[in-house]
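Lecture 7 notes. Example A: sequence first, then its structure tokens.
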Amino acid sequence: MRRRRPIKTSGSSFSTDRVELGDCVSGMLKMPEAVVDLAFADPPFNIGYDYDVYKDKMTPEEYLNWCQDWMEQIYRVLKPDGSFWLAITDEWVADLRVLARTLKFHLRSWVIWYYTFGVNCEKKFTRSHVHLLYFTKGKTKFTFNEKDVRVPSARQLVYNDKRANPEGRLPDDTWILRPQDHPAGFKAEDDTWFISRICGTFKQRAGIANQMPEQLLGRIIRACSNEGGLVLDPFLGTGTTAAVAKKLARRYLGFEVSKNYVTYIQKRLEKSNPGDPLDGPIPQGG
């Protein structure tokens, strides 16, 4: 991690329940310290994806320096008990995990999101997962609403064991086979989350970018924030984080560099209301 001079910040433009057009680092610099309950980041992966205004191709050094810039700001704006979730691919997960540790984030879980309709590859195994790194700012003090994300246990579903906790259990840390390879092996209590990607034929597909499923964000937001809390997304994309936060009665704030995406997000938020059901099937696994 490179050494840097202190960055001057200003909280003059801070407000919530809004989407800001512009660079997330510049936007977060306007925010006061310690105001965010939960940050979720699904940044560009630096793999040459064709965005409309952003060039997704930097040198490794440029990309890591840029990631340091926005991760430093996430750390600064998080509350002492705040949480940070990072969605990232194989190419950068190790580097960004080390960077996060250097910035004093505490890793609590390394979740694998397994999805159907994997990205087909010809000279390596088909990719069908994304890494979800769950960090907290504080080592021992943080929000985790475990009752809101419990799943039925094997004792309940398979064995009908009266000793089973009727509230279910939290996910395990486990390796898993694909469901079609071993149908009995993919259990609802695992931390490999089996949730489909938003594919082109799906009703909820926006058609303008890679899109996170609402149910995936719902699990994260329920677990790591409370109603009325502030959820931040520095790379809003199609606005799933903001829409889910609004449906779950949280405040939201996000940044997006594409004017086209911001227009779409604003229309999406107009149709989203607190208490609305989340789109998509309820996730299996974890």
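Example B, a different protein, same format:
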Amino acid sequence: MTTQSKRAERANLPELAPLVPTPVYDTYWRFAVERQNIFYRRIEHPFGLFTTDPILARHKFTNAYRASDRVSQFLIRHVIGSCEKDARDIVFRVLLFKFFNKIETWQLLERKIGEIRWRTFRRQRYVDVLDRAMASGTRVYSAAYIMPAASRFEGARKHETHLRLLEHMLGQGLAEQIERARTMRAAFELLREYPMMGDFLAYQFVTDINYSEMVRYSEMEFVVPGPGARDGLRKCFASLGGLSEADVIRLIAERQQLEFERLGLTFKSLWGRPLQLIDCQNLLCEVDKYARVAHPEIAGLSGRTRIKQVFEPNPTPIQYVYPSKWGINEKVAASMPRGVT
């Protein structure tokens, strides 16, 4: 029996059967607690000591809650915030922002074009702005995840294929179709029909649209595990016992309070909002990275052995705001230190 198998056997919890957890499973919950503690510490003391965990102190990890990350916060406040009532503007602005997933690119387009609205969209104007930016050496895409080109629109540079795809989607009535969709799964399937839209991207994009008021989907409806989450699952469990990856993520989400209590941990939730499926999926991706250093003996699917991104503090404070339908913004505002705008 291998060392990994022995550890998995010792760590096995009967109530988790048929899953066979490894030591990384307990690390998952400890990581979630400490990462969320860091989130609150940064709010209370922006220039203080965030953590004594050497891995978390050195490397960059996303928040326990997806909506708390800086890019998501920008999306909620600035991209969605000014067009809450117009479905076409919401879908247009959200998808435009997410294709590039970079705050600086959005700000560049606003400076050069002005108000970003579907009714005034002229593709070539946007192409020209991005062409000039790229010619000067500016990166217009985030490195958070790789955006494939929309292959249907051949003969154009990557950013132009995305703008053509966006024009096509809105022209086909996608915004109105999503507004009428009764479930998150139905909206996901609408996005999934378009070029470039694999399962993972379509799930991420429908989650972003769901931050708006045009739809009211539950984040506990369904989940699509990405590559990092699948790696994390293989590190947390020596065997999935025949369960699907999505089913395991749901089980994790449903057991969160039980697992915190089992380990004697106090998890400070998002002002009363428990971890949702999208958050548990993201945490699996992050614990995959964390385990490369904390549990180097336990391999995932990718075979990666180091964490590339080093933590660099961003001095710009965030005035946190969340979808109003979550009902937590009054608590959030009361927790913000004075002077944070």
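Note on Example B: The longest strand covers residues 237-239. Residues 1-12 have pLDDT under 50 and may be disordered.
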